[in-house]
User: What shape does this take?
Amino acid sequence: FMALDVSGAVLWGLAFGLLNFIPVLGPAALIVACALVSFATEPNFVDGLLPPAILLVIHIIEANFVQPWLLSKRIVINPFAIFVGVSLLVALWGPLGALVAVPALILIYTVSCRVPSMRFIAMLLAAEYQNPAPAPKKPKAAPRRIWRFRVIKLKMRLPSLRQRKTLPVQTV
Assistant: This one.
């Protein structure tokens, strides 16, 4: 925006960053607001169309390529759960609830994965539930030493018949 000499470029960037936390509705609302402001302030149609078009291109690249690539292994929350959570918190708290909903769901999911009694919540929120690795078992105590006699087997090699010497028989 600064390269295009758009007034309030830093404000538009901050608003885009904050409203990006609200799935689908946040960026769409900002692009519509940017279009209304730019059409009202720019003298011709092309200059008014350029800022919302740039925001739309940035959003498409960020939402379809960058964000899934960065978050694909970390956040595995069901999209339906996100929709329900955002809708519920918007109904309760308004726009502030929309900003808080996704981070709150991530927090709830992370805590419920770690606490064994809350695993059912993790299963409800997860897109694909993977049972976390079980807690490491306590090391077993060293076994008590039981003394056993070791039987040593000696291989006895019997001399062949040629090597045998007859022992003199002692008579008494």
Summary: The chain is about 55% helix and 0% strand. Residues 24 and 39 are 23 Å apart (CA to CA).
